[in-house]
Design goal:
Blueprint lengths: L2 H8 L9 H18 L13 H10 L9 E4 L10 H11 L5 H17 L4 H15 L4 H16 L5 H12 L3 E9 H10 L4 E5 L1 E4 L2 E6 L7 H13 L8 E4 L5 H5 L3 E5 L3 H9 L3 E3 L12 H6 L7 H11 L1
Parallel strand pairs: 1-2, 1-6, 2-3, 6-7, 7-8
Antiparallel strand pairs: 4-5
Helix pairs in contact: 1-2, 2-10, 2-14, 3-8, 4-7, 5-6, 7-9
Length: 321
Amino acid sequence: MTMLDRMASLGWLPHRKRSATARSVLAGEAAAEAARKTSLGVEAAEAAAEAAEAAEAEAEFPVVGDVRAAAFFDLDNTVMQGAALFHFGRGLYKRQFFSKRELARFAWQQTWFRLAGVEDPAHMEDARESALSIVRGHHVSELMEMGEEIYDEYMAGRIWPGTRALAQAHLDAGQKVWLVTAAPVEAATIIARRLGLTGALGTVAESVDGVYTGRLVGEPLHGPAKAEAVRALALAESLDLTRCAAYSDSHNDIPMLSIVGYPYAINPDTKLKRHAREHDWRLRDYRTARKAAKVGIPAAAGVGALAGGAAAAAALHRRRR
């Protein structure tokens, strides 16, 4: 069943009326279609990793010339220190994109998630709705332009050299490399392009004629939705998931890590580290002795709709009308 067929069968009901599983499938497939439409097809950027890290990555994996293999990388605290959405929000606030009151609300949500350590549905819903209300009526191109500048200001210097070396090893072997993140697909695509990766799977928000409607396509690309996105992309790209690799720092990504043949725990949280050891998964930690602060990982998932959407969401919406 194609994504459009599945959406038709779902009737495009409001997200509160659909099961979590259905929303995850829809979010995953929307992200996969958006990623394929925005696949970058550019030459890989020069890796920032030291030679030793690159050699280590190449020695382990991947297999050169295996066109049915690919790699999927989580973004926050896997490829980049901190949460992309947090840095994106800082840049938008600096450009007076939203008010101090809205910033204070985000700060409270961020603090609550960090202190609680859980993703309460009510708080996740509140974070998502507040983010969507901010971007409603704004042009996709406006956020894309700002995103380019914000990457240079806040993100470029936060890329983990070791993880970038791993991604480069896949690229050098002729494999495609995708970011898979709850961050907005626009922001994720900018980061992927700057790193010379193939493309990105991210949270997709609906837009019509290039303007955000304030609604999501499915739900934030988080947890099970990431696994659905990878499955959908693998099917479209004729990939064999048993020959693919996935990398993440968070136990929330265990569903995605579990569907590939080469799962890696990168800078893992406590739960993921325990799970990885129990299942004999590969572990890599590129943090210093003083671990990098995990800035708002749960909140990033809850507010994953801050930008989202781009051309794919607009196309989907036009096709269903």
